[in-house]
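Box 3.1 A note on notation
Throughout this textbook, protein chains are presented in two layers. The first layer is the amino acid sequence; the second is a token string describing backbone geometry. Keep the layers aligned when reading.
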Amino acid sequence: MPVSIPKVDLKSKSISEEQKEKLRQLFPEVFTENEIDWDRLRLTLGADIGDEKKERFGLTWRGKAECFRIIQESSVGTLKPVKGESVSWDTTENLFIEGDNLETLKLLQKAYYGKVKMIYIDPPYNTGKEFIYPDKYSESLETYLLYTGQVDAVGRKFSTNTETSGRYHSNWLDMMYPRLFLARNLLRDDGVIFISIDDHEVHNLREMMNEIFGEENFVANIVWQKKQSPQNDAIYISDMHDHIVVYAKHAKSNRDDPSGWMRQFIPRGDEQERRYSNPDNDPRGDWISVDYTSNKTADERPNLYYPIINPNTGEEVWPSRQCVWRFEKATHEKNLQENRIWWGSDGKGFPRSKRFRSEVSEGMVPSTWWKREFAGDNQEARREFRALFGTMEDPFDTPKPVRLMKKIIEISIPNNSDHFVLDFFAGSCSTAQSVIEMAQERTQNLKFIMVQLPEPLPKEISLENNTILKNIADVGKERIRRVINKIKSEQKESAKQKTISKTTPPHQDLGFRVFKLSKSNFKVWNGEIPADGKVEKKLEDFIENLHTGGTDEDILYELLLKSGFPLTTPVTEKKLAKKTVYAVDNDALLICLEHDLTKDLIVKIAELKPARVVCLDTGFKGNDQLRTNALEIMKSHGVADFRTV
């Protein structure tokens, strides 16, 4: 009887199994033979069991049940490395992934689960002309492969979502729900997500986010002024804004709560600094005056409703009963003694509190109203795009300016930190440009993961450097390259003039790795019986489980990702027994892709005492004795996890 060596799981992380395991930890008593006893769970939670369905509040639509089936369905695709389109492959930790974002999010679950600090997405607004989605949600990878011409077929395509489709809002929800569900898994516990949207679907987005993230984790609905002036050809009222909906993975229960996401301050600009002055020559320096009253009424806070005396006039001053004083009497007396009250330039005005510049933070608390002067607008975004691409127009109707993205990063991520920023509707990659520039400005090594569908451009574009842009993904990659080249050119010029900025981090990541979604390098049987019933023929096809055409590098990165290692994990090549072995993360994992394994090679691998080893099953060539010896050799050297694929 041949020894069985455990197999590498070639499917993406099982969301349903993960959720079931969380439930088991909380309620082990509701499991019977690894299945959930739903009636017992309802009883455990104190709910009545009855046949009658109760009416309940929530978001529902035709197709919602299918969304959950899609979420639970593992991906058997892979992300193939494309070094030729990358920049500084060997040193970068930035990623650009070309492919359908649903499949990509599934594939990222094992390696990037709980590792992303901030997500920003600018998804389709569902206006009827820009919405791209797979026609058959149940076959997303297959649909994508057909769409991109990786397999030959007709009749399967991506298309727009029009109001005449009969499922206008449902289609959009079908597309968004699984992606947001999977995206939440990738966030750190102190992570946050920002989603741009307009008035078409903001109400549905809020309901969907309340369900996926929890209403208690809603942070804010930022209103961003995207245009400089109204459109005179508007049918009714010219829209001037977009929404940016913000949810934390775990919001703080109060200001002192140490867990969850904490917003950062917005750095103060020149305009804010100019507000401070020192008209009375106070030795503590510049100050501004702020309201001395609060938003409480005399009925709510009777202890704050009392008269105070103006020391300059001796006059008794009372607050309004609707807006009592901000401070209790004892605190007011202390403020008076410390000259912290401003009575106006003539000393006779209504009291205001002096807030000294030296006593406030270096930043401001962000608000929900972002004017174009503060965060840029669509027109500014178009100018930025033309500055990189010349006369070429940004292919998006509502491009996002770099300044907007930088504000989002500023309030999301502390300075001097090393975090991932994810955008899985990357478009022309203004998010990537913002991350690179912010890393330079704030002396921190921010890293990005961009995901973009290769949606065809209306027509191919030839650039001056002989580059041809065929789709949106091409535009995004080229933009990142041009941003990197621009920064390198500026640094080179600064070096010539010996004026290198002290804020430029010496370790700044000016590169990115490109990966493209494709089918697995391995034949993965889903268990379906062929229509002709010839199972024997199907089994014969799987004796050699590798597809033809895949390189060792393609296979290596598929195993890397599906073993839970990030796509930028250091990999070195070793020569053992005159054969090649790949060492991942300082020998944490050794991968051998040799098709002719020997006992000597297996011994050499085991002697390195790695935590995990993966070999090709075909490398044993049906030699059961070698297979048995390999398992025993690994055990004898303390290799706890030895698998084949």
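The longest helix spans residues 472-496. The mean pLDDT is 88.
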